[in-house]
Records
---
Amino acid sequence: MNDKIKTLFYCFLVLTVSYFTYFHDYYKPDMAYYDEHHYIIHAERYIHRIVFFDTNPPLGKMFIALGEKLFNPNKNVNMEEQLERGYIFLAPMEGFSFVGVRFFPALFGLLNGLLIFLIFYGLSKNHFLSLMFGSLYLFENSSIVHFRGALLDSTLVFFSFLTILYFIYLYEKKEKKTLINYFVLGLLTGLAVFTKMVGFILVLLLLFLLFKELKVKELFKQVMSYLLGLCVICFAVYYIHVALGSNIILDHDIRDMEIKVGASNEYIQMIKNKDIYNPLKLYIPMKDYFNYMRAPKESLPMLNAEIGSSPLGWPIGIKNISYVFAGDEVNSNKWWYLNFQGNPVNWGFGLLALLLSVCLIIAKITFKIKISNTRIYSYILIFTSLYVGYMITVTLIAMERILYIHTYLLPLFFSFILFFLVFNYIFEEYIIKKDKVLYVLIFLLMAQIFYVYYLTSPVTYGKSITYLECEKTRLINFWEDDCTYE
């Protein structure tokens, strides 16, 4: 079979599985959960041209609004009260449909399955291994439940995967990298950054690319091209955000925190004068937005409050989140739960890969051990740096404000890539020989991932179950999952 046709066939298989795990019936449940209660209002504010600020950049919320605008399922629903209040209640809202607001986050969740397969294939050129290890993402319960909501992280991961995929292309490229290449890498990084600021960790990819090139004379132009790409996305995102805000509601509360949000006098004057489309004055609303993004550090509850958790506990899945809990209207002995609950097999593989990667890097630096495959080792070093850099950054942030375990999803996927790389590094000889025993072992490992996904699926898709059945989905005792009952 032709290699391109074979690749397309595998891509089709991945997309089919990803559709059923991430996208099918994404509009269920018909009630808001977790941060949907204010991201949906942010989307509505774009549609109604109302100015607002948030602790995250605008891009992810723009996609939520775009989905709502495309499908327009709530044109007859009165949202005036919710718009003024700044959030919607988590209880079902009569007549409200989630088809539009959840469309792009769920679509990105689906496409991420394809992207991680292509990342694995770019690293290994092995279709079967890429498909099998793609199960780490395809059957990861925590990302499934989170990416099916009107939330930001599936968009962040989508643009992060695109950036990584393009980086691999450039890293493997034998021809000279052009300034356009660096510009595009900056564009893709910018899309991740201006979805959530944690996307800045991807800037490390530029450093590794520059280090590999080691062309001092070209360094300034390469960095400037990359920064230009970042700035283009920054300008475009904030220009659209400001242009969609021609009305302002002063002195309203955002989320359930006592933070009075208002634009500066200069920004208010811009709105009154209908001057929001002037690109030369974009710095004024951008300054207000960035000031607001910094402000909540002193206002949010501390780490031990609510459902917050320390980044130090994330790799072992500590303190998961109960998104929704409601009684079954038909059977009073049953409830349905929607929990952010990871697949412990996946998380265990990711943690093991991280530990092995760190040990390999330390052994190489300290004891000068011989590396059997320098190409794979280079990628192990790169993704270990991404993981460690991300975790150090969020740990420092956690000293000032509360954080939640879903923030771990991006480094979790870094650990999945590390697991794939470490596996290829250790078993390279057997992979080349297409050892049947190894391939059977791989199949059994992936079957275990699917089995645990299936056991956990009742709280991933909100199925009606008893309290005891919910408790059985907690496969590791020290994971703080929330199965409650009335």
Note: The beta strands are 252-253, 260-261, 321-327, 335-340, 464-465.
---
Amino acid sequence: MRTLNRLLLAGLFAIAPSAVMAADDAPSADPDVTIRTEGDKLIQEYRQNGFLYAIKVTPKVGKPYFLVRADGSEGNFVRSDYPDMLIPAWEIFKW
């Protein structure tokens, strides 16, 4: 009986470090928020595990609004208050 208890205790000590390492690699539940200023707007980008899923735009004049993914593709965002209006991600001119 005593040897069985020692083996169980040794097994627990052997498994504990791998459980801690697995917890460190787990995806975080909190989003990463990047805040930047572009012109007269404050832009907050919300990312979950590196995936950009929402953008909050706060202009100096007017109400703040959110841009959210229209679908899973890259670069297609819609305003959350106007879901039928697509926001294009391509450039026409660049100086």
Note: The chain has a mean pLDDT of 74.
---
Amino acid sequence: MKNALLNKTEVLQDRQGLKLASYLSLGTAELPHDISERLRVARMQAVSQRKVSQLGSARTVVANGSSAALTWGHEEGLGLWGRIGAIVPLIALVVGMLLINSMQDDNRARELAEVDVSLLTDVLPPEAFADPGFVQFLKAEL
């Protein structure tokens, strides 16, 4: 919330500055050359001395409550527990995906085994296995 208000304030200040600059620029065409040159120099000085926001390091960004940056550098990086805490969810995700894949393979094999058992235990003439319509029937049943 605090950051959103700061950003909104900066946007409003920028808009007000642009509006003020446009009002000041309207009357410059009617001014004499020496006054317009002095105004241009004053604007250049004002722009050169304006407050420049500096980019903060990850530690200062996190301390200000902006966003947590995961850095692996030496001076601003996470400690051992921070790195372990960052890697553990990735390992859990990979293990979970492997378990899901294994379970799906087992379920598919179980389904195919049930179809094979039902076909082998059912009374069918041998010509049924050679019939192309029977193959289509089996595909439709699955």
Note: Helices lie at 2-26, 33-48, 58-63, 80-121, 126-130, 132-141.
